[in-house]
Amino acid sequence: MRYRLVDVFSERPLAGNALCVVLDPCPPEVMGPLAREVNLSETTFPTVTEAAGPGMPGRYTNRIFTPTLEMPFAGHPSLGTAFTLGPGRWEQTTAGAVAQLEVDAHGAVMTQPDPAFTEIPTDGLAEAAGLPGVEGAYVSAAGGIHFVLLPTTAPLEAIRPDPRAVAEHVAAHQGVGLCVVRRLDDRTLHVRMFAPGAGVAEDPGTGSAAGPLGVLARRLWGTEADVTVRQGAEVGRPCRIEVHAEEGHVRVGGAVASCAEGRFTLD
């Protein structure tokens, strides 16, 4: 089975959020073990159902796996998969969402469902995240994915979360991960995302959370509709995620760089 590695939310290889895209058919029972073998944040298994043509979008279904579980929807795997399939317009169908994507030689942009937010008690969350305090706590829901979101005014560079406590809080809200977000200015957010329960200690760039975070930042802090999310520098994989946070028209995108290609020899 052929595969390709791409680095999403980066203009250069060996930065951003790495993704493995498996290009050939894979038996369903092999997908999870293969994702564990690759051990990146996500590995994807797309199946093209209609090729893209002049003025016509292509269509594909996609299955997305972390090292420990299958995801109904995710951001950087959607963008990186569409980029790997080639320039043009694509419609991606996963278990949690149908997304429209536009791809060029430099990267990809996707639509996202409007997020819904539920405010939750803050008890124990600041301590779990290693923060001195938070400005509320929310659970976002979009595309079948839930995140615990913690807005804060505290610097994020040196925080040290408690993985066990984070996993417990996230599981209590049927979530995937915990995101801490700080407003740097009206056009820039600093984000860190921890998902120990999904086998990802810290995600370098979380596209599925970027849309909800952009919308929440507009509501809480009055940030601009177009913001850049800075993420991943703390784990040596800097990401820049471009977000259009207008409700009803949420879009998330960024640069994508090809990094490697090869073949799994499982026969």
Chain-wise SSE layout:
Blueprint: E1 2-8, E2 17-22, H1 28-38, E3 42-50, E4 58-65, E5 70-71, H2 75-85, E6 88-93, E7 98-103, E8 107-111, E9 116-119, H3 125-129, E10 138-142, E11 145-151, H4 163-172, E12 177-185, E13 188-195, E14 200-203, H5 207-221, E15 226-231, E16 239-244, E17 251-263
Parallel strand pairs: 2-3, 4-6, 11-12, 13-15
Antiparallel strand pairs: 1-2, 1-17, 3-4, 4-5, 6-7, 7-8, 8-17, 9-10, 10-11, 12-13, 13-14, 15-16, 16-17
Derived from helix and strand composition plus strand pairing, the structural class reads alpha+beta
Coarse morphology? globular
Question: Termini distance?
Answer: 9 Å
Residue runs with pLDDT of under 50 for 5 or more positions: none
Strand content: 35-45%
Question: What's the arrangement of strands in the largest beta sheet?
Answer: 1-2-3-4-6-7-8-17
Architecture (CATH level 2) name of the largest domain: Roll
Specify the CATH class of the largest domain: Alpha Beta
The helix/strand series, from N terminus to C terminus, equals EEHEEEHEEEEHEEHEEEHEEE
Q: Count of helical segments?
A: 5
Q: Give the count of structural domains.
A: 2
**Total beta strand runs:** 17
Radius of gyration over C-alpha positions, nearest whole angstrom: 17 Å
Helical percentage: 10-25%
